[in-house]
Structure formats: C-alpha cells, structure tokens
Design goal:
The protein is an alpha+beta fold. Helix content is about 45%, strand content about 10%.
C-alpha cells in the first residue's frame, strides 16, 4: 500500500532562462535606488493627494480617469503604513519620515519591470525567433523614458503593463485556438485578456485604445472562423458566447467593481463632493449629511425648503432672495420692474429658505396629516424671511434680455398684478402621480401664466453688478423645449413648518434641521453620477511649461524636467533613448513601405515571400503597428494639455516593431551569407549605440550622479530640450 514511498517524488519543470534573466534585469533597473530622491517628483504632487484622501477615506473626483490606478497607488501606501498626513503642495518638497516612499513607488516599479519579460513573450507568441524576442525585451529594458516613468508614483507604467498583458494573453489564447479550444488553458488566457483590458481601462481611459484594437482583432479572427466549414453552427455559437462573456461582459463587471470598491472606501465627505448632487452628498458621512440626515422625505404644503440648482456651474448655488430690489434702470438704459431681487447664491444662507404654499389656502404650516405635493400640482413659493411670493412677468432679465426677470412680488399699486403660480414638474419621475421628494426629486418650476421655466442663467462667468451683490442671475426661460440641468432644482434642506407667526417662523428658519428619515442612493445611481462627472468635469486647460504637441513626440523634440536637487544640480528628466526612438520611427516607415510594396506585387500575382511569412508579417504589424497607431493618432483629436508621457504606450508598441522588421529583413532580403554577416554586424553596432545612449543619459534617468555644468550642456543634444542649468 505504501509502495510508492520506495521511490523518490520527482518534480520536473521547464525554466526559460532568458525569461528569468530578463525579469531579474528588469527588477534591478526599476527598483535600484527607488527611494531616491526622497522628495516629491513631478506628478507625485498630483497623485499623492489622492493617496492621502484614500488613507483618510475622504471622497474625491479625479477627472483624469477611473479610480483603479489610484487605488493601486493607495494600496502601496496602505502596505507601507502611510497615514495620509503629508501636504502635497510643491514639486521637490522633502518627504517627511511618515511617508513610505519605497512602498508608494513599488507597484509602478514592479509593473515597469514586468514589461520587460512581457515584451519577450509577445514576440515569441507572434512566432518570431527567441533572438528577436530577446532584442525586443532588451530595448524595453534600456528605454530611459520607461525607466523614469516607472520609478515614481505615476500611472503610465501600470497602464503599459496591463496593455502588454492583455496583448500577450490574447495571443496565447489565439495560438491555442486550433488545437486546444475550450480547454482550461484556453479559457484562462481568454478570461485574462478581458481582465487585463478592464484593468487597463480602469487605470486610464487611454487603455480603451488597446482594448478596441483587441476587440477588432478578435472580431476579425471570428469572422475568419465563420468561413471554416469544419465548425458547426453550435460550435460557432459557443465561440461567440465565450468571447462575448470574456471580452465584454466580464470587463464591464470588473470595471463596475472598481467604482464599487472606490465608493466603499471613500465614505467621508470632503472638498470634492460639492460638485455632486445633493443626494450624493447626503450619502456621505459628514458634510451635507450632518445637515440633511433624517429630513422629511415628502415635500408637503407648508414645507420649508432650500432649492439647489442641479447644474452646479459655474458654481453650486441656491435659489435666494433678499430685501434689495432691482434698480429702476440698468446701466444700459433698460428699465426693470423694481421688484425684490431673486438670485442664485453660492453659499448657505437663511435667505435661501422658501415655503411651499397651497394657492387656495392662506396657512404657511404643514397640516396634520401632511398633504404631499405631487407632479403637476400648482404651488406658490413664499420667501421665508420677507414673505414675498416668487414671481415672473414680461420684463427683460438684467443680464439675459431675451429671458424674463424673476423677482419676489411687491405691490406698488400699479397695473402689474402678481403672477406667482408655478407648476411642479418632476423630471425624474416614474409616474405622473409621483410625490415631490427631498433631495431625490429633480423638479422644474413652470410659470402658469407665461410657461417660462425657472432657470439659473447660463451666462457662464457673469454675475450681477454691485447692486446684485455679484450673485448669479435667475431668469424665466421662455424657450424651454428640451431638458437642461440649469432649469432643474432639487430640495436640499427641508423641514415641516410649524409656526404661522412671522417672528416665530424666522426663529424656526434660523434653527438647524434635525429629523429622522435616511436617504441612501443605490450603487448604480452613485456610479452613474460619478462616471458622468468624470467624463464631463474638465479643469480649465492651461499652458504648461512642459506641455507639447503630438508632433513633437515622434522626433522627441520635447522633454520634461521631473526633479531638480536644490543644491547639487542633480536632476531627473523624462527623455527617451534617442537611438531607440529613431530606430522605431525607421522601423515603422520600413514596415509601411514594404507592406505597400508587397500588396502591390501580390495584386499582380507576384509573391515575394512565402504565404506563412506574409501572414506572420501582417499579424505582427497589426499588433505592433496597430498598437502604435491607436495609442498615438487619437491625440491629434484631443483638446487637452498634452505631455510627452502620453506617448509612452504608443512608443512601447513601436519599439516591439523594431525586431519584427529586423528579423524580416534578415530572413527575406539578405539572401547571401555575406549579406547576412554584414547585417548581423550592423545589428550589433546599432545595439551598442542603444546601450551607449542609455548609459549616457542614465544620470538624468536615475538622478545620480550629479553632473557638472559642462556635462549637463553636453547632454543637450537638441536645442528644444530644457536641461536645467544653474547660473553660476
């Protein structure tokens, strides 16, 4: 029974020494001296703020992309015991002792290091020689820009890692297609493709470019499968469903999970939540939630409310009035109604309170039981402090003469009667009998007499003159076809009014609201709102000292100074390996010219290379050349501030194209032994130049050793490079 113990248990394993050596070299190149400099380097000042907010569980919105990359950086801080206490306000600021610099920079460095073996495996899976694959990996290893970007708390190296992992996984899956369809390894690589694509998109939306490329490639491959008569209809359907599940459904679910974790972690109110809706703010701990927690849910006749404009641009504001009136005549000579001003005020104030009144009754308190206001009901809005009614009439607004002035009505005993009836329209209603709800309902107020809609003026950046205390204009918009958020309001603060006497009511309006009903948004509601804010909320793009155009990247006519030592002159720059970038451009040009030549010749039924070599050439170009194109060309259509690091995913694919072209030239154009020997010698000389450039610029890549004034000037190979030289 125990006979198997008589023989030793033997485990055999195949170890690719090339792969192990490349991984070790990648780790050394990215992890060496990782804590240097112990100071804030370039965009660490930006991402570090978000890491601190994660540590303190404070909500934030970053319009640069989804939260997965930020969470990975925060994971490094968490593993290092970071408490979030550091002021990220200046590039070059020395890190305090509580900041785990090595831990914060570890994950980007590991991702950058693993890109080296991934490059090797991608070329192998494309069916190129191990020599070509080794060359691709070494080019990635010695690429100065990729080293620099991966050694700091930045996201590009993580993005490139997931992009390359997605490409490798798809190639492995595709190569298993003919012989091992639906096997365990087939499923593993297919699922990993979808997961890696989702992670790439979750780090930065630039990951979408490669994701679309792989979806198009998968679609093309499936199209070819349809023509395979050996596959049954059932088999084709299974293949289609498997790809749909792994490449679309699972990535979407994973993408949602990034936001779920993000929102679960950031449950505390902070400075960024003011751009969110009242419902979203109320779901966070502290902030608005402390004020609105437990308010009555249903707005009733007699309710005391504040109304926040949903648009929130140019800033959040609340419907407001005060005792001041519009001037009899404006500066341009136009006349006004001289009624009490109504504005949108960007601060919380007692003059933001309004009372919802039933036009058929005089009381300003909530009855028992309360009578809720529903969609389509007619109401009057009474200003809480001045007790004047919200009104509009056919008088031009002060800043928007094509719209109606909105005021609180004062009876001057002239032929201008009050027009103060408003119809409540719940925009996000589920039925026409919906009750107007606190925070949750988005409502429009339609003027009964003129059909004008109450609107926060769209005159962006403009505010009322001194007579209006620089507050924002509110108008009655006559052209109200269609939905616009500036016409939509929601109740933020709410109480049931109890005091009929004005003096008692004023005391009531000044007191805080404290009642006992909670309002929680669903995850999907939060996700939808946050996703929309990320996509639409754009900071004003300003010219940056190191910003550049997409055309500057190809020839590397630009650089970015990441860090400068305060005394020694040591510095770190984002600069690519000039020899590699020039070779990548040449390889792309050669590939394009050769492909066009082959296509023309094949059209004439002249086949210069075997069909297998042609398929290899086209598939490699589709992945490497296509990867460069989809990650580069879209930047010509973007209206945003661009930097050199945006080009790094594209140039990574372009670098992979170099050994593809070199092997093709060696195999099919160098036909004699002499030509092959000369070509090999040229490759050795060229690769020596790549290594020479890497070594020459390594002081600017790693920030050490410090260089003298003469040495720094010698490294300025282009006049457009901004090498920092201190004045003596």
């Amino acid at each position: 029974m125990l006979g198997f113990l008589k023989e030793p248990v033997v485990v055999t394993a195949k170890i690719n020494v090339n792969l192990v050596a490349l991984t070790v070299l990648g780790l050394i190149s990215r992890l060496w001296g990782l804590c240097y400099p112990r100071a804030v380097v370039f965009d660490e000042v930006y991402y570090g703020q978000f890491v601190s907010l994660y540590m303190k569980r404070i909500f934030f919105v970053d319009d640069s992309g989804p939260p997965f990359g930020h969470m990975l950086l925060a994971l490094g801080g968490y593993l290092g015991g970071f408490d979030g206490n550091f002021l990220w306000n200046r590039i070059g600021a020395e890190y305090s002792m509580n900041v785990p610099v090595w831990s914060l920079r570890l994950l980007p460095a590991l991702a950058g290091a693993l890109c080296v073996p991934l490059a090797y495996q991608i070329l192998v899976e494309l069916h190129f020689s191990h020599c070509a694959a080794l060359g691709a990996a070494l080019l990635i290893l010695l690429e100065n820009s990729l080293i620099t970007q991966s050694r700091f708390m930045l996201l590009e190296s993580i993005l490139i890692f997931f992009i390359l992992l997605a490409v490798l996984s798809y190639l492995k899956f595709y190569n298993l297609q003919k012989h091992s369809a639906f096997s365990g390894s087939w499923w593993f690589w297919l699922l990993l493709t979808g997961v890696a694509c989702s992670c790439a998109v979750g780090v930065k939306y630039m990951g979408l470019f490669t994701y679309m490329l792989l979806l198009a490639t998968a679609g093309l491959h499936f199209w070819h499968m349809i023509g395979d008569q050996n596959l049954s209809n059932v088999s084709l359907l299974c293949h289609f469903l498997a790809r749909g599940l792994a490449l679309i459904i699972i990535p979407m679910g994973l993408y949602l999970s990034f936001f779920y974790v993000h929102l679960a972690l950031l449950y505390r109110s902070g400075p960024h939540d003011q751009i969110m809706t009242s419902a979203f703010q109320a779901s966070l701990e502290g902030g608005l939630a402390r004020i609105t927690q437990g308010q009555p849910l249903e707005v009733a006749y007699g309710s005391q409310i504040t109304l926040r404009n949903v648009l929130g641009k140019p800033m959040q504001c609340w419907l407001h009035s005060h005792t001041s009136t519009y001037p009899i005549r404006y500066e341009n000579g136009r006349g006004s109604s001289h009624q009490q001003q109504v504005t949108c005020y960007p601060f919380k104030d007692v003059n933001n309170w309004w009372i919802v009144k039933d036009p058929g009754m005089q009381q300003l308190v909530v009855s028992n039981p309360p009578r809720p206001v529903r969609h389509g009901h007619i109401v009057q809005l009474v200003h809480g402090i001045t007790t004047r009614y919200l009104n509009t009439h056919d008088v031009a607004a002060p800043l928007s003469p094509h719209s109606q002035e909105v005021s609180c009505y004062i009876d001057y005993n002239i032929s201008m009667p009050a027009q103060n009836l408003w119809r409540v329209e719940i925009v996000n209603r589920e039925s026409d009998t919906d009750v107007w709800k606190t925070i949750l309902s988005e409502v429009r107020f339609v003027h009964v007499n003129t059909s004008a809609v109450l609107k926060a003026s769209g005159v962006i950046g403009a505010s009322l003159p001194e007579w209006g205390y620089r507050q924002l204009e509110v108008v009655g918009e006559k052209l109200s076809k269609g939905y616009h958020q500036s016409m939509v309001w929601n109740v933020e603060e709410h109480r049931y009014g109890k005091s009929q006497e004005q003096k008692e009511r004023e005391v009531e309006l000044h007191s805080p609201t404290q009642m006992d009903i909670s309002k929680n948004l669903s995850f999907m509601a939060k996700f939808t709102e946050l996703q929309w804010k990320i996509l639409t909320l754009k900071n004003e793009d300003t010219e940056h000292k190191y910003s550049s155009s997409a055309l500057d990247w190809i020839t590397m006519d630009t650089n970015i100074a990441y860090w400068l030592h305060p005394t020694s002159g040591a510095q770190i720059h984002l600069l690519g390996n000039v020899a590699t970038w020039a070779s990548a451009n040449a390889a792309a040009l050669v590939y394009l010219c050769l492909s066009l030549w082959y296509l023309l010749r094949r059209r004439r039924k002249i086949y210069d290379i075997p069909e297998e070599a042609w398929q290899l050439w086209m598939s490699a170009g589709g992945i490497c050349g296509g990867g460069w194109a989809v990650n580069y060309l879209p930047f010509f259509l973007m209206e945003k501030t661009l930097f050199l690091y945006h080009y790094l995913p594209a140039v990574t694919f372009q670098i992979l194209l170099i050994p593809v072209v070199l092997q093709h030239l060696g195999d099919h154009l160098c036909r004699s032994v002499l030509l092959k020997s000369m070509f090999s010698a040229l490759i050795v000389a060229w690769f020596s130049s790549v290594y020479f450039v890497y070594c020459t610029f390594s002081p600017l890549t790693y920030g050490q050793p410090a260089l003298s004034l003469t040495e720094l000037k010698a490294l300025r190979w282009k006049d457009t490079w901004n090498i920092l030289i201190r004045k003596q």
